[in-house]
Every structure is written in structure tokens, then in C-alpha cells.
Specification:
single chain; 4 helices; disordered N terminus
């Protein structure tokens, strides 16, 4: 399908159906296969479901989210099954399954915590927490190298490079959603982090995307506090082993400073 003009782009990543299922739009399309989603949007969609259940227990900070990506997520209808494994006064553990056509494509666990203000002493080592290399307004606009004639993830997000070069090694990039996950619904800050964090292995790539595949089979996000604002920065780098494995890790920032880290296990192979 040829890329449409901007006013013909889908207005959201997903549509909530009357059945309670979600239909993915072309804005979710990733770089590996034209019929598969980038993992960021569906991870954010499941994060949204976990947030809602956790909030019912008074647990409003998603301190960890782990996604095990079992199969490629097709651009089609999705269902979410969610369970409360344990919910206490200050913390709760949750799990979820993402299904496409009745088949499980991803499995999730999350830790949610109660938020309460704590007065910290002055002069703690490593504090105040560091800032991203540059502010979003100081960082030049750039686009992913897989942005092409097809509508996809590169149309869903705005990207600004704070340090390095996209797909040329260690790189710090600001992400902002151009479109919401669901129409007429403001994405939460946690959903914004999830959409961006799965791009760590891409923005810090050290292999040629046309010659190599370096797909991640999981994503873990750890956040030390609630993010703030529309912008999320990934300061990412990739490390490769000699036997087809690798690791991408990202320091995460909002405009106020460091908020946490994300990691991805990579499966590396030569195309063709």
C-alpha cells in the first residue's frame, strides 16, 4: 500500500471495537515485515490495560514492565487478557497475555507501586539525577532510515536526535507521539515510554539493517519515578556477542531528567 498524504493518515494507532478487541492501524507497522507491528505500540496498549487495573488498587506508578515477545504481532485485531497476581498496600504484581486470532503473541508481567511523597536528604551520591544530553527543542528533527513509501511507526512518532546518529551506534533520541494510541484519548506517560523504549536496538544499531536482522525478543522497562511530559529520550547503545546474541540498553529521560532504564535481548542473523 502506498503512503497516503498526511491528512489521510490513520488518526490513532488502534481502534477499540464494540467486542472489546482492538484493531491496529498502519501506524503500528514496523521495519521487519510489512504485515507485522513494531513492538512498541502493542506493548503500550497492554501497559494501558495494566495501568487501569493497578489504579483500581491505588497503585499508580508502573515501576517495571516486561514484555516477552513470543511471535510477530500482526497488523490486525488484538485481545488482551489480564490477571492480578498479587495486590498489596504498596505494590502489586500483574500479568497479561496479548492474543491475535486466538494465538498468544506476547506475555507480560508488571510491578505497580503506590506513590507517596518522600523528603530525601540533601547531597545523596548521584543526585540530582542527570539530564538528557540536549533538550528536545535543541535537538534536530530526524527520521528512521526505514521510513519509506509505507505508513508505519515512523509516522506514529516524532524523533529528534540529541546525540549521535540514528542507526550508527550509541545514540540519544527524543520521542514524541504524533498520534494517540486510541482516538480521543490522551496517552499516559507510561504508554509514551513503552512506545519509545522498544526502539533502543534500532536507534543504536551498529549493523546494516539491509544486511542483518537484530530483532529483540523481549523488553524490560524499569522506572524510578513517574515520567512527566510528552517527550521521552532514549540514550541507547547495542552490544553484540559472537554467537548470534546481543543486548541493547537505554537510559531513559524526560525533560526533567533521568527516569530509568530499558533492556532488550537481541537475536542477530545475516539476511538471506
Amino acid at each position: 500500500m502506498l503512503k497516503t498524504s498526511p491528512h489521510e493518515l490513520p488518526t490513532s494507532a488502534y481502534e477499540l471495537l464494540d467486542s472489546g478487541s482492538y484493531r491496529a492501524s498502519l501506524l503500528t507497522r514496523g521495519p521487519w515485515h510489512p504485515e507485522h507491528q513494531h513492538a512498541g505500540p502493542p506493548i503500550a496498549l497492554v501497559c494501558r490495560a495494566i495501568e487501569r487495573v493497578a489504579a483500581g488498587h491505588g497503585l499508580t506508578h508502573i515501576s517495571r514492565l516486561t514484555a516477552n515477545l513470543l511471535r510477530p504481532v500482526p497488523i490486525g485485531e488484538l485481545d488482551i487478557e489480564l490477571a492480578t497476581d498479587y495486590a498489596g498496600r504498596n505494590a502489586g504484581h500483574f500479568s497479561a497475555r496479548l492474543l491475535a486470532g486466538g494465538k498468544e503473541v506476547a506475555r507480560f508481567t508488571a510491578l505497580a507501586q503506590r506513590e507517596s511523597e518522600v523528603c530525601l536528604p540533601q547531597g545523596l551520591p548521584g543526585h540530582p539525577l542527570p539530564l538528557a544530553p540536549k533538550k528536545p527543542e535543541e535537538s534536530p528533527l530526524d527520521v528512521f532510515p526505514f521510513a519509506s513509501d509505507h505508513v508505519g511507526y515512523a509516522d506514529l512518532v516524532e524523533t529528534r536526535v540529541a546525540q549521535g546518529r540514528l542507526f550508527h551506534g550509541p545514540c540519544a533520541v527524543w520521542f514524541r507521539l504524533r498520534h494517540p494510541l486510541l482516538a480521543n484519548e490522551l496517552p499516559s506517560v507510561y504508554q509514551r515510554v513503552a512506545v519509545a523504549a522498544d526502539s533502543g536496538n534500532g536507534i543504536s544499531a551498529i549493523l546494516d539493517l539491509k544486511r542483518y536482522s537484530f530483532v529483540n525478543s523481549d523488553l524490560t522497562i524499569n522506572l524510578l519515578r513517574r515520567p512527566r511530559g510528552e517527550w521521552i529520550c532514549l540514550d541507547a547503545r547495542s552490544y553484540l556477542g559472537p554467537d548470534g546474541g546481543g543486548l541493547a540498553e537505554s537510559a531513559l529521560y524526560d525533560i526533567h531528567g533521568f527516569i530509568g532504564r530499558s533492556t532488550q535481548s537481541l537475536s542477530v542473523s545475516r539476511r538471506g
